[in-house]
Amino acid sequence: MSGVQQLEVPEHDAGQRLDRWFKRLFPHIAHGKVEKLLRTGQLRVDGKRAKGSFRLEAGQTVRIPPLPDPSEVKAKASQRNQNKLVEWVLYEDDDLVAINKPAGLAVQGGSKTTQHIDGMLPEGHRLVHRLDRDTSGVLLIAKSAAATKWAGRAFQSRRAEKVYWGVTNGVPRPLSGEIAGYMAKGELDNRFGNIHMGKEVMMAVRHGTQNAKHARTLYQAVATAGAKAAFVVMMPLTGRTHQLRLHMQILGAPLAGDPKYMTDRPLPGGLDKTLHLHARSLSIPRDGKPHLTITAPLPAHMTKAFALFGFDEADPEVNWDELV
């Protein structure tokens, strides 16, 4: 913890907001903490209380109260992250940890993503596979390089079986089967009026299209609510980006709340505008041991949808071999 500091505002910082000036000098202090320092009068200008929007002038003196050093803040943040991960744990052994990833939390970082699962992991832990930011459910993490290697091979060889649950806007036709085809990156158009141009999506394309990849999904609508919605169970046989989301759209019933793969059909009333896609279970082979199968309970927004439409949360019996 530092002591009290009295910092003079240099000429090149004149005109800056107090809160932004402070944040630039002390980026490890959270915004909420800065607001508290201002509210309680610990952060002052020329001995007087000031609001965050106060415009500084050259030569003014800003009182900086005692602050924790960056390493201390980082340690506390790391502990908070690990506490969150513990809350989400579904399974753990000497090699693996499986968590129930919340919808809306990215798995890895990007240019505009600062909070993500990868950044929350303890040292030595590694992601085995990925889920979309808006998809909830089973996410597997390895505790060592060796565990990452053998678990990763299971995914690459398609010996790891993933089952997803979704609630669709409309009912897929046919109600069950296999959907397969080629897909490649493209951009959203403005067909439905409420889509922003230029957003990257996956699109169905012909074989031979540049960068096209083949995708296969088995699916079954195990329950429907008239023509409004369906409870669909899906097993991807390949692991393409947004594969399930695109395939449900192609079948005429995109996943409810999907902001990219849409329809001109209104979202049924009462549903949250959150992607209704959940990685329900994961089964992975282990050398000399029975397959490990992990199941994740539904998130709140999908539990609400199931109650609204009268869908049963018990795992349905699906004969995947018959759908191939």
From TrEMBL:
The entry's keywords: Isomerase, RNA-binding
Database matches in Gene3D superfamilies: Pseudouridine synthase (3.30.2350.10), RNA-binding S4 domain (3.10.290.10)
Record domain RNA-binding S4: where: 16-79
SMART domains per record: S4 (SM00363)
Taxonomy, superkingdom: Bacteria
Keyword ATP-binding included in the entry's annotation: no
InterPro entries noted in UniProt: PsdUridine_synth_cat_dom_sf, PsdUridine_synth_RluA-like_CS, PsdUridine_synth_RsuA/RluA, RluA_PseudoU_synthase, S4_RNA-bd, S4_RNA-bd_sf
Family: Belongs to the pseudouridine synthase RluA family.
Family annotation (PANTHER family): MITOCHONDRIAL RNA PSEUDOURIDINE SYNTHASE, RIBOSOMAL LARGE SUBUNIT PSEUDOURIDINE SYNTHASE D
Protein name (Swiss-Prot/TrEMBL): Pseudouridine synthase
Source species of the chain: Algimonas porphyrae
Lineage start: Bacteria, Pseudomonadati, Pseudomonadota, Alphaproteobacteria, Maricaulales
Gene: rluC
